[in-house]
Design a protein that fits this description.
5-stranded antiparallel beta sheet; 9 helices; alpha+beta; about 30% strand; about 290 residues; single chain
Amino acid sequence: YGQVHAGGTFSMEAEATRRDGSTLWIRMTLNAVDPGDPAQGVIWVAEDVTQRRRAEDDRRRLATEQRTVLEHAGVGIAFLKDRRVIRCNRQYAELFGYVPEELIGRSTRVIHVSEEAYEERGRVTYPRILSGRTLTEEHPVRRKDGSTYWSRVTGRAVDPADPGLGSVWMDEDITERKRAEEELQRVLAEQQALTNNVVVGISFVREGKTVRCNRRFEEIFGFETGEALGASARQSYFTDEDFESMQAVCAELNAGRTSTVERWLRRKDGSGFWCRMSGRALEPGLPDKGYVW
């Protein structure tokens, strides 16, 4: 009351109980009728602020849930506005060698390998997510110490109709996967170079179709380069009976044995020739893995 009689305004919010037992939040404001004459009394103004308080409680609850999701997600997550980090979880920051506080407010230029890469991402990426699509890309990014790694990035606009709300991004380090893929490609290239320089035809057959072969195999059967890939093994036989007779041979291969047979086979142009074939299963007992001939 001293504050009010001195000419000030006092306000407070409190939970109250109605006559029927239900509760509500009230904001009460107190003013003196005449600050210079306390005998004139005071005026109380009460306002129901229940909806506002509930909305605030909901926002706090959602914020708590969001923090929980961010901190326990298995990937890095960041919220961006104007290509600046507004919020991110620890996993996201650690991917780039930072702590979250170091990234907040900073441009994402710091995680791109060059100015050109940063500009290119802006030209290509943002028009796509603002069209309502979820974008997934794989490209190199830069850590705080200058080292780089391969990242799988998934992004989406919070609201495509309102770019000002920003976007959500998830980053995942896929360096080991990329290295494995590159190693596989190297091995396949070496294998193809080897098979292309032997004097016999070699093919890898899975589910009755040629999935890989060397150039000599294509020449034997009269195919152009690459034409045999995906071709059915059936077309190399003149009759269904001849083709089905190979089932017994495949049974031997599935048992882990190597089989050598001679068959009258058909070239692409329809001509025939005698062929000596040796085959083995890639993984005995697992015919779905295919065979080498």
